[in-house]
């Protein structure tokens, strides 16, 4: 593919540490080219101590937009001029738009999760969810589920304090939040499996093959739908596959969060299938 870079090329990118493993440069650049946009998307590795300087650099170099990945999603908020609603609730921003030096922060992870989930579960609102974890990814997932109208969500975490903090932070999002979110400890997951339709892992457990299981995966039933936001077939998903469950890894979430970011930056409908094809090839 010929890359028509010239003096009018607009630059987008992703900042993180590390960031060399990111799949975003390939599928975002392919999306720009497929629509004939004179844009390119690059990875920028930024150490935590250099984050503020990097954001000032975005303004100084007229970089039109960036994605933000670990470990900067929460910290970057300090250096953004305006925050969207979902960022204020989730407490993290993964997408920034630069309007002539005025930075607007968004979080497209929530949208990405919901749109990905709809590929295997078109109707979400009437299902009962178990969400494992209470970090930034969990907050994005929970925000999306609540906005979709889900009424029953069990949130399992090692420390219940973090779940209770989410409930407190989300009380203006839905006045019935205390009835919707039920905190349980990780040890109680198996006791709650009978009462859920969808199991979602938002933790990093499973990223390494030697990670211990989150619970006894033999307790998963064929009727469960299992989602792991990690971009691989984890032991949790392997167990779901053996049981004959519908299951999904993190690639659809990655795809759709990128789709939303593209549309925020360009104002154009993203070429979803182009982006999907490149992402699956890589």
UniProtKB/TrEMBL annotation:
Record: residues binding shikimate: 22-24, 69, 94, 109, 231, 257
Gene3D superfamilies: Leucine Dehydrogenase, chain A, domain 1, NAD(P)-binding Rossmann-like Domain
InterPro entries for this protein: Aminoacid_DH-like_N_sf, NAD(P)-bd_dom_sf, SDH_C, Shikimate_DH, Shikimate_DH-bd_N, Shikimate_DH_fam, Shikm_DH/Glu-tRNA_Rdtase
Residues covered by the SDH C-terminal domain: 250-280
Pathway: Metabolic intermediate biosynthesis; chorismate biosynthesis; chorismate from D-erythrose 4-phosphate and phosphoenolpyruvate: step 4/7; Aromatic compound metabolism; 3,4-dihydroxybenzoate biosynthesis; 3-dehydroquinate from D-quinate (NAD(+) route)
EC annotation from Swiss-Prot or TrEMBL: 1.1.1.25
Oligomer status and interactors: Homodimer.
Record: active site: 73
Domain Shikimate dehydrogenase substrate binding N-terminal span(s) in chain numbering: 14-96
UniProt cross-references to SUPFAM superfamilies, sorted A to Z: Aminoacid dehydrogenase-like, N-terminal domain (SSF53223), NAD(P)-binding Rossmann-fold domains (SSF51735)
An annotated GO cellular component: cytosol
Originating gene: aroE
Keywords: Amino-acid biosynthesis, Aromatic amino acid biosynthesis, NADP, Oxidoreductase
Catalytic activity: shikimate + NADP(+) = 3-dehydroshikimate + NADPH + H(+)
Family: Belongs to the shikimate dehydrogenase family.
Domain of life, per lineage: Bacteria
Protein's recorded name: Shikimate dehydrogenase (NADP(+))
Domain Quinate/shikimate 5-dehydrogenase/glutamyl-tRNA reductase: 118-204
Functional note: Involved in the biosynthesis of the chorismate, which leads to the biosynthesis of aromatic amino acids. Catalyzes the reversible NADPH linked reduction of 3-dehydroshikimate (DHSA) to yield shikimate (SA).
UniProt keyword NADP, yes or no: yes
PANTHER family (alphabetical): BIFUNCTIONAL 3-DEHYDROQUINATE DEHYDRATASE_SHIKIMATE DEHYDROGENASE, CHLOROPLASTIC (PTHR21089:SF1), SHIKIMATE DEHYDROGENASE (PTHR21089)
